[in-house]
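Chapter summary example: a protein plus magnesium ion.
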Amino acid sequence: MSKKCLEVESLTKRFGGLTALDEISLHINEAEIIGLIGPNGSGKTTLFNCVTGFLKPDNGRIFLREVNITGREPHKIIQEGVSRTFQITRVFPELTVMENILISIRHKEESRIRSIYKKSNRDEIKKASELLEFIGIAELSDQPGGELSYGQQKLLQLASSLMQDPSVVLLDEPTAGVNPTLINKIMDRIREANEEFGTTFLIIEHNMDVIMGISHRMYVLATGKIIAEGNPEKVRSDPEVFEAYLGGD
Ligand code: ADP
Ligand code: MG
């Protein structure tokens, strides 16, 4: 049997009268790539926010490699090995690409933006260089983050998310607003990280062809509930999934 990397048990999150997540249960095995899809507003980002500690769930539990991480502070959860990217890309425009990737492993409190390079040790710089090489943006190391194209910023975020050898990486729409050539590049790097380093991924993605092409297994959310689970073929042919998208936005 495969070992579970992340497990979510009966997770509920309400915003006032709105139940954004309604007793969600799901799991991700070690070295799996899981696709998470669902219409706008179905609760995908809220799930990420609960898993990463940005939001406190009203009910339910979250386990990372059998450790209960429910309700812990975001920086603790990062230290435990959960890494994420955001739907809205966050890059420091004045820091170089290298500084941006180095700062990703510091907590906000301890980061002194100007001296980030000096504070980083040789191993961290070496790791950052290797990852920039792996992702294919090493030649941009000394450029300010603000000069990167949107797609390059997405690549930088992906590289940053791999800095701490995470147990699991949560990607929120990694290809949104990115041109098709770069989408393929991002997906290839995710696949390669999964195959070479055994990295486990949970990916929110609107582009159906993209997510179905990369996922080992998928979950479908609609109005805060999981309405389907299974391999891409199964999900693709599920009438309830079809209905959710047709009835959605
Ligand atoms: P998705 O990522 O699937 O598009 P979200 O998780 O962002 O959906 O949102 C799920 C629902 O919860 C939506 O109805 C959204 O308006 C609501 N929601 C999300 N975050 C908040 C918040 N911080 N406060 C109030 N309502 C929120
Ligand atoms: Mg979202």
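Key point: The first helix runs from residue 44 to 51.
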